[in-house]
Amino acid sequence: MTNLNNTSCTKPVVLCFSGHDPSGGAGIQADIEAIAAQGAHAVTVITALTCQDSSHVHSFKALDATQLQHQAETLFNDMSIAAIKIGMTASVEVVVAISNIIKQHSDIAVIFDPVLASGGGDDLSANDLVTAINSHLVPYCDLITPNIPEALKLTNQLADQAADITDNIELAANALLSAGCKSVLVTGTHSDTDKITHRLFQAKQMQEDFHNSRLPDEYHGSGCTLASSIAGLIARGNNSRDAIRQALDYTFQSLQYSHNPGKGQRFPNRLYNTDSKSS
Ligand code: PLP
């Protein structure tokens, strides 16, 4: 008889700090699916509850920072965590609590998607949150994955209409590297070009560009999908460049197989590999 209780099958664990998107397109649900698709296991500490649909975030409420820190410590006491993914942080107190955790575990790779706005353009951050992120999270991250507006907002740069946007992106990435994070992947979907360029900046290394063709639709949860799949692949032992390359391909595929459960943006199909009904 087959032994279904196969104790030798262990999956690396990724700890996620993210908000809950009840529509299932972004946030913690996106993390769980994207990390599972890489063969890793997500454990989840919720930072915020949101009220949202496939078009908009109508409101959000940050959760209690003391309980959040206690929950993360409880997981660390129980499991070996291979990577940490941070998404929506929602309040200064939550940022400080997450910072306390990552500083205590400085040997673990931290991948941070600085969620400052929703896919539908709703603001999910205030200026004091950006300041807290810069002081308490940016210096301790291995990889930050902002889109272009997030990179500019984090580094306090207004996009200079007269300047080449490439210069603005480079200035922003270099400011984040100077603040102490090891790598910055600026995703390019918010540009207006047909071909999308994602730019990876690493201290003392050549910049590397990755290209995708532009898909016709708008998506909810693509940034979460990318950052979580990178975290899952790093947890599986890939170096950051390989993880980024594979995660960009995976995210692009999930968008090609996207579905549309609501009236707004399409959702990435993060389980397209296991979904025999996907077309
Ligand atoms: N996390 C949560 C909880 C959200 O509600 C959202 C957007 O609505 C995001 C992250 C960011 O989503 P995206 O991956 O589309 O940038």
Describe the structure.
The chain has helices at about 25-35, 65-80, 90-105, 125-135, 150-155, 165-180, 220-235, 240-255; strands spanning about 15-20, 40-50, 55-60, 80-85, 110, 145, 185, 195-200, 210-215. It has about 280 residues and is an alpha/beta fold. A nine-stranded mixed sheet has the order 3-2-1-4-5-6-7-8-9, with helices on both faces. The protein is globular and about 55 Å long. The structure holds pyridoxal-5'-phosphate. Pyridoxal-5'-phosphate binds near residues 27, 57 and 87.
What's a quick, concise take on this entry?
The chain has helices at residues 27-37, 65-78, 92-104, 127-136, 148-154, 165-178, 222-235, 240-256, and strands at 13-20, 41-52, 57-62, 81-86, 109-112, 143-144, 183-186, 195-202, 208-213.
Low-confidence runs = none
Number of strands: 9
N- to C-terminal distance: 36 Å
Order of helices and strands: EHEEHEHEHEHHEEEHH
Task: Please give the largest β-sheet.
Answer: 9 strands, mixed
What is the overall number of helices? Answer: 8
Radius of gyration: 18 Å
Write down the overall mean pLDDT: 92
Residue share in β-strands: 15-25%
Q: Name the strands of the widest sheet in spatial order.
A: 3-2-1-4-5-6-7-8-9
| Secondary-structure class | alpha/beta
Share of helix, binned: 25-40%
Overall shape: it is globular
* Distinct small-molecule ligands in the complex: pyridoxal-5'-phosphate
